[in-house]
Amino acid sequence: MLEIDELAVRLPRTARPAIDHISLTVAANETVGLVGESGSGKSLTARAVLGLLPKDALISGEIRMDGADVLTMSPAGLRRHRTHSAAMIYQDPRAALSPFRRIGDFLAEILREEIGAKAARARAVELLELVGLSEPERRVRQYPHELSGGMLQRVVIAAALAGEPRLLLADEPTTALDVTTQAEIIGLLRDLRARMRTGMLFITHDLELASTICDRVYVMYAGRMVETGPTRRLFAEPRHPYTSGLLAATPRVSALGTLPPAIPGRPPDLLSAPPGCRFAPRCPHVMDSCTAAAPPLVDGVACVKAEL
């Protein structure tokens, strides 16, 4: 359904591409995780799928949605794509909603031009009921400040579903929520995917969260894919040192009182372009060949050590 092929995006006045020739796929009724630290290019990848890249960015590669290349779509084609093909669930619902507009007006706006104001209002009520909000008739008359964070996240999910898209782009949809509400939203997304058979690209920096919902996972670092594979295999037998470091840094209930080991150093910013593998300066297994050339993604991993 979604095919990203050798996508590269370079922003103005940067030393390296923000997205560096990445490829990934998402099938219908499949949830694919995209994980990595902040600044790795995850959210920019999702925006690229919607055709929301900066006008002055240098772009190459292809993003195909049901065979149509998003990067060459007309403005009218992009509008249809962003409504009926793919839709984004943003991580901060309060930033996605206007505080001056009622919830019903926000949801109906998406559909008003296609089905009329009265039908759009009725559909807004149906969408709120679909995402599990109680008293949907009352909720459409409320303003964002009258709802909790978890309720607002359900509203944002309802908005994403309004055009019945085939692909959902979930950009850290539970980051601003408490643990209990996180579990409820993850359960809702899993249920909606099963009922509507949508594909989902689930973006997160939390590997444990990805393990609960994703069928496959891509690990991204400094704009490049460093490892990919089925979720169970990748978590049980990580092959790239970065994946291993992320998993080791996850807090465990069994290790109360001790801090998990952190990955030393920081990811390179867009103003620096280290040669070879971009993880080499932080890698505990670095070799001379690591800085000579960037290892390609072979058999699901981009690491010289894994090839030995």
From TrEMBL:
It is found in: Cell membrane. One of its GO terms (molecular function) is ATP binding. It comes from the Bacteria. Residues 2-247 form the ABC transporter domain. Belongs to the ABC transporter superfamily. This is ABC transporter ATP-binding protein. Keywords: ATP-binding, Cell membrane, Membrane, Nucleotide-binding, Transport. PROSITE patterns: ABC_TRANSPORTER_1, ABC_TRANSPORTER_2. It is a peripheral membrane protein. It comes from Nonomuraea recticatena. Coiled coil: none annotated.
